[in-house]
Amino acid sequence: MFDVAIIGGGPAGLSAAVTASVRNKKVAIFDSSNFSPHLRKAWIVHNYLGLANITGEELMNKFVEHAMSFKPEVIKSKVIGITEGDGFFTIGTAGDIYQAKTIILSVGTSHSETMNGERDFLGKGVSYCATCDGFFYKGKVVAAVSTVPSALEEVEYLAELCSEVKFLPLYKLTEVPKHRNITVISDKPTGITGTDRVTGLSTTGEYLPVQGVFIFRETDPIENLLPDLQLRGKSIFVDEQMSTNIAGLFAAGDCTGQPYQISRATGQGLVAAIGAVSYLAKNFK
Q1: Are the C-beta atoms of 187 and 167 separated by less than 8 Å?
Q2: pLDDT in tens, 223-245
Q3: Which SS3 state, helix, strand or coil, does residue 213 take?
Q4: Are the C-beta atoms of residues 252 and 260 closer than 8 Å to each other?
Q5: Shared domain check, 107 and 8
Q6: 3-class DSSP state of 181
Q7: 255: domain range?
Q8: pLDDT, tens digit, 9 for 90 and up, residues 163-186
Q9: E-strand stretches of the chain
Q10: Which of 19, 100, 161, 253 is at a distance of 20 to 30 A from 281, taking alpha carbons?
Q11: DSSP SS3 for 166
């Protein structure tokens, strides 16, 4: 049971980790992407106060070094779901389940758009985790849609369970799948169909009769983590304390909307952590 679970290891998340750790809280950081690969690609950062003309890689390394000096637990797994419990949250990854009294979402922005039918069939044939749900499709035909090369391992795992995997990589595939029951399809998916459960996947070239659709992205749309989370457009709605509409759940950084600036993200991370600490003091005595 963590006091503060931080989802995302960018500037906002690491700032929150420092502040919560200074307040002597048990902190976990969930980050599966090497701490903000987006910022690491920045050639030069001109406007971070006190660190002029620094590369994104150098700046992130400084952030990580500072945060890790407090020894938070780092969990290198993608969070695929969050549920509310009796005064705490349950956090699901591909391999494990964790619990936390408060959560700070610092997941950045998702550039992925949901497919037609995706939300309608979530839990009814649509999944984001082969390790979690692959067993339920043993001997069946499924489709796997991926925007990231790293998901090929999960596609191969599905092939060990399913009779056939129709694989739609939305990137340039450079590695040939090992299993013969994986069919690579170059068309793009356009929608998921079904009645009470998934029965097929429409693409730009053909219709694929399947019993399940697995979707692998670097980041999923925010609303997929917590369906009851209040959004403003595509951003998480927060108040001045970085509180969301769900008690004990806070958000900071780019996921709360524009402007997308490092200074804003680190400041919001600090405020969110103070909010979480205050929530803990009031509700866990």
Answers
A1: no
A2: 778 878 999 988 999 999 999 99
A3: strand
A4: no
A5: yes
A6: coil
A7: 2-111+220-283
A8: 999 999 998 988 889 999 999 999
A9: 2-7, 27-30, 73-75, 79-84, 89-93, 97-105, 126-127, 141-146, 164-169, 182-184, 189-194, 198-203, 207-209, 212-216, 231-232, 235-236, 249-251
A10: 253
A11: strand
